[in-house]
């Protein structure tokens, strides 16, 4: 009979949440922790979503851990909005820097979990039949870990290759000379379509509901800008934690028709924040006011 491995805490998933939990529970609280990850590397969302153009819509200086000031100061981001490869490099750097891999079991799926009220213990069953138990069980699987492929009529008989952005081949896909159909214009579609179109012979996009997306105003991050933000990190992190959505942005303007044309056009065109904040000054329209920008 197989012996059930016993731990203080079990964490499912080695994405950003799972890695943070491992560090806090093991290094700060002294618990014996085991993390189970079905992939063969850390990063979660950024491990699986490797489609062309994948990028985060939160500024890189804030899409990062705040538990270590040394980590904050040593890591250098290259762009205002980071790409998937750069975020994955960051995740791997964190895993190596804090020795997280030694307590993560990769290529391991959790099949089920059962709670015993008499012993206050969770028993986790793995895909290969092994079991592990712990008093604490944390599911850090994230909201993007299960990809949904709609049951399109004719999909089973389609003879060409099909891909899902959440299950993208790690070796990449060569679209040179191909005719490509993309279904959906959500966040992933908006990022992938322009990059695929640069390579493919023809791209057809199918969408149910049109979206509106303003220019991101992405740019390389200068050393001076990074130094300024790092010098103010403690206050900026506190401001972000006390904000409505975890990021520092000016307050919403309200109804677009209630503000003047100049401000409305600036907001919808993705005008650089420093200019939009100027237009938001008191007297420029309902709901206007100052705002602090994340990246300068």
Number of continuous helical runs: 9
Order of helices and strands: EHEHHHEEEEEHEHHHH
Shape: globular
The Cα radius of gyration reads 23 Å
Low-confidence stretches: 274-279, 282-296
What is the β-strand count? 8
Quick one: biggest sheet? 6 strands, mixed
Give the helix proportion (percent range): 25-40%
How far apart are the termini? 61 Å
User: Which structural class do you get from the secondary structure elements?
Assistant: alpha/beta
Q: For the residues shown, what is the average pLDDT?
A: 88
Main β-sheet, spatial strand arrangement: 3-2-1-6-5-4
Binned strand content: 15-25%
Itemize the secondary structure elements and their pairings.
Blueprint: E1 5-12, H1 16-28, E2 33-36, H2 45-48, H3 69-74, H4 84-97, E3 104-105, E4 110-116, E5 121-126, E6 131-139, E7 179-183, H5 187-199, E8 202-206, H6 223-231, H7 233-241, H8 261-268, H9 273-279
